[in-house]
Amino acid sequence: MPKTPEEKRLTAQIEDLQQQLASKAELVDTLKDQLEAEAKFMEMVLASNSIITKFDANFNFLFINPYAQEFFGFSEKELLGKNAVGTIIPFQASSGVNLRTMIAEMLKNPDVYVDNENENICKNGDRVFVAWRNKILKDEQGVFSGLLSFGYDITKRKQIENEIQKNQQKLQEAQKLAKVGSWEWDIANDRLTVSDLTKDVFQLDSNVGIPSAVLMQKIHTDDKPAIFESNRKAIQTGETLTTEYRILLKDGSEKWLKSENAPYSPKPDGSPGIARGTVQDITARKNHEADLYKAKEEAEAATVAKSDFLANMSHEIRTPMNGVIGMVEMLLDTSLNPEQKDYAESAISSANSLLMLINDILDFSKIEAGKLDIETIDFDLRVTLEDLSEIISIKAGQKDLRFLLFIDNSVPVKVKGDPGRLRQILINLTGNAVKFTEKGEVSIRVTLDQDNDDTVMLRFEVSDTGIGVSKEQAATLFESFTQADSTISRKYGGTGLGLSISRKLTMLMGGEIGLDSTEGKGSTFWFTINLEKQDGVVNENYNLEELDNHKILVADNSKMSRQVFSEYLTSWGLTTKTVDTGEQALSCLTAAAEEGNPFDLLILEKKLPDLDAISLAEQIAKSPTLKNLVSVIITAYGKRGDVNKLKQAGFSGFLTKPIRKQNLHDMLTIVLGPDVKCRDAAERPFTTRYTLEELRQRQAAPSDEPIKPTKKSARTSPLRILLVEDNIMNQKVVTKMLEKLGYVISIANHGGEAVETFQEGMFDAILMDMQMPVMDGIEATQEIRKQETSGGHVPIIACTAHVMKGDKENCIAAGMDDYISKPIKKNDLLEILDRLAD
Fold first, then answer.
1. Where are the beta strands (DSSP E) in 487-629?
2. 3-class SS of residue 595
């Protein structure tokens, strides 16, 4: 049945209610979903490890999640409603302004998140850095109502960035201090990035994006090939290369630069990588090098001038000295009364002293000019020192001083070096020692300082019992022209050059020199030199079999002398005892004989403090237990007639100090031999160094040849000598010197005349001066050698006052056979002539 209007109205209301209920149910479901989503969101916010904050339009906290609370150290209660500025944002006058400026920019595009980084502050005052992402909030009317911000901690990253920045600043500062710039080249894109210093050096407008051609245009045309090659090689090989080149600046001036590249390697895919390197302005260094080179050339020119001056001075001084010494030597060969002979000998002594002074000054000048050479030749150290010791002992003996030489057994004696310069040092030092010693002794002691595979460092000590020097004097003794006593009233003379020359010679021979001295108690000058060992050479070889099982007593009041004997004798396996008085010697001899273990030999110093040798020999002769004792005398004070007196006293031998080791060995071999020792004292042969020399000559010579005399005699058959000399006095000296010995002399006044004279006559030798007019000695020698027929060779001897470095070598290279320096000594000239004639 049809519904009534009321029913229809009710039905409509019911349907409307149902729709409303359905709509509300849907809304409830929607709200429920929103609440669940918000709950999940809040759960995520609360559990998040990020900083999440919400601010109102005035930047007061509306929300802060737990992580943010923990991070900043504030509780929620402490922050809600508080302004961000002054809590987590350090308070500054500009802080609020900066926030509003950021908001104003964000409002221009409100749907976009804006990032920023800033420094924040924690409750405990720690400063932290946070990276923020910010979103504008608006109310229902679209008006700015606040700010939602998400942040995360970037403090460590900022610290690293700050550290990198500091290091970059330090690098920039270091580059500025070192004046070293840097560059980086992107090879694939051909773009350079350079430091500020590099930019300034090349006068560039920018630091980045620079084509390499811009720099290459500035490089000097002559230097571009080297740069291209350096770049090519660096890229190809990966090597670190250094290149120096010039660049041209806008004002036309030049700069010198030095570039170094870091090791280059391409990218992993093989494409070109990045090349890096440094650049440095070296203009000042190059200018300094140019100045140094110019100064070096000027110094070399000055050295050449000094050397020329020295050579000329040597020639000018030695030429008249040759006349003085030569004439006085010939004068001494004439008949002179005692007074005249004394005058002549005094003159020759003074001339020789003057020559030594000239040699010292010349040596000093050579060293200063770098013109002094050190030779390296084979020599026997013991022979060199023993020969030198005989000369020194004569000077020492003139002042009644003992002179001793001790060479330690560990010292190799077959060595290579410069024996002449070694002698020069020792002559300087021992000469001073003798000069400044009035009584006692002077000694040379040689020990091994270092022993290497091919070389040895030897230490030489020259000791004396003289006046000594103070510490103040010792500090300056090795300086040039310095003397310990430089007062006008000084007792001892001298130039003060000897020690300075010795110091420089030891330095040239790889050693050093020094002094140990006590004023009033003597001095010890020491020096070291480096010598090479001779290859495959046995140093010393003594026959020890004949000296076995012998017992020796040494009586000597010198401690050094006793040590020398003890070292030598014990090295030969002999039982040795030393005493320092005659009474001690007699007591030891008697006691040993009574014990049945007598001494076989007594080595006795002639002068002992308590008993002289003759008195002690008489007491020994009276003793029945000692009458067959063999005794030898060793002394530094040998006199004419000593041998006969000592032989009559019952001694079997006599040697003078300093003792030659070989002579001592040979004497012991003779006097301890069974055929000598068994004889009565009166029947034993008396052995001296002269009998030892004769014995060695007999052993060395064939039995059918007579022993040659030790002294040279004048040649019986005359030799024709061509003397080439422009100085009239030198002509006279050499002519008279050789004519007295039977030589026939022809004279040429210069080299050109010598060549002509040589063509006209036959000569056995030519004495050739070096510095002459028309033609010098070198040119003359070369011309003569050209004219010699095959098979004919005339010895040419350079007789010259030129004694600088290289003079002798120049003479030999020109074709001369030998060299003698002026002033010419007769014996030296004769020795050369005899050698060439043989």
1. 513-518, 522-533, 551-555, 575-579, 601-605
2. coil
DSSP type of residue 788 = P
Give the number of residues written for the chain. Answer: 838
Tokens standing for 507?
A: 């330095």
- Please list the residues that pair with 630 across neighbouring strands: 601
pLDDT digits (tens, 9 = 90+) for 582-603: 888 888 988 888 888 888 888 8
Q: Tokens for 61?
A: 């906290």
Beta bridge partners of 458: 448, 529
**Phi and psi, residue 831, nearest 5°:** -60, -40
* Tokens matching residue 35: 């609440």
Yes or no: say if 720 and 744 are a contact pair by the CB < 8 Å rule: yes
Helical spans, DSSP H, in 334-459? 338-368, 381-397, 419-435
- Could you tell me which residues are beta bridge partners of residue 476? none
Amino acid letter for position 516: D
DSSP reduced 3-state for 478: coil
**695-748 residue pLDDT tens:** 766 665 554 444 443 333 344 445 788 999 888 878 888 888 888 777 888 888
Peptide bond into 823 cis (omega under 30): yes
What is the C-alpha separation between 283 and 248, in angstroms, rounded? Answer: 12
Cβ(629)–Cβ(602) below 8 Å: yes
User: Which amino acid, residue 745?
Assistant: I
Angstrom distance (rounded) from CA 41 to CA 123: 28
By CB atoms closer than 10 A (0-12, 13-18, 19+), residue 775 is middle
CA distance 531 to 446: 13
The pair of structure tokens assigned to 542 is 């003594």
